[in-house]
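Good morning,

Attaching, inline, the backbone tokens for the sequence recovery test we're adding to the shared suite. The designed sequence is right after.
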């Protein structure tokens, strides 16, 4: 893919990632000035869920980039992996900020109680915490500073993030919804591709190791 193609691809990715925020801003504006019911009966819950849903979707999209390269041999998905991951982190921070600022209004005691007593909040908080070092070390400079091997090991943490986010999503799912199971199935398929690729690498490495020499007779 040439420079122009990469530019078009990234512009398209930016547009797709920003579209949910633009839509949310539009709905909030209409609700405030035109008194529409775009945000539903519980606006805070709607905003929180909208941001949380898109956090998980973008996280899945980021996790899908390497499997797409493995399965189909495409190179372009790797151009979007970091961008999608950073947008997933951005949506996660916004999701968390609404919970702090609007839902609890800096009531730290109540928030701490929720984290301890409500499992879906516990795993959601852990998922956000695992995203922080990944976002902070996403730059090319940090890759050079940490070294490619250490950086790769650190960023395998994203698989744990995916599992925690899936648990958070499942615990919050409403009765009658099926999309949460679809998302979890997608996550399982993506992790399955990585496990198969990891197993193949182990087999290839084992094949390169020469067999042990027979013991020399005394």
């Amino acid at each position: 893919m040439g420079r122009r193609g990469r530019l078009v691809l990234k512009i398209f990715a930016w547009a797709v990632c920003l579209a949910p925020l633009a839509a949310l801003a539009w709905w909030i504006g209409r609700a405030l000035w035109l008194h529409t019911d775009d945000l539903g009966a519980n606006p805070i819950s709607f905003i929180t869920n909208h941001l949380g849903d898109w956090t998980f979707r973008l996280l899945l999209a980021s996790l899908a980039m390497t499997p797409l390269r493995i399965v189909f041999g495409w190179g372009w998905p790797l151009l979007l992996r970091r961008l999608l991951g950073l947008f997933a982190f951005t949506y996660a921070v916004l999701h968390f900020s609404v919970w702090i600022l609007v839902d609890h209004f800096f009531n730290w005691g109540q928030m701490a109680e929720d984290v301890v007593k409500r499992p879906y909040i516990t795993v959601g908080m852990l998922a956000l915490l695992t995203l922080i070092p990944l976002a902070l070390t996403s730059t090319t400079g940090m890759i050079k500073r940490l070294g490619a091997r250490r950086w790769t090991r650190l960023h395998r943490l994203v698989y744990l993030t995916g599992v925690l986010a899936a648990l958070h999503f499942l615990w919050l799912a409403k009765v009658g919804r099926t999309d949460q199971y679809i998302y979890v199935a997608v996550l399982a398929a993506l992790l399955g591709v990585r496990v198969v690729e990891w197993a193949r690498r182990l087999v290839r490495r084992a094949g390169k190791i020469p067999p042990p020499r027979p013991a020399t007779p005394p």
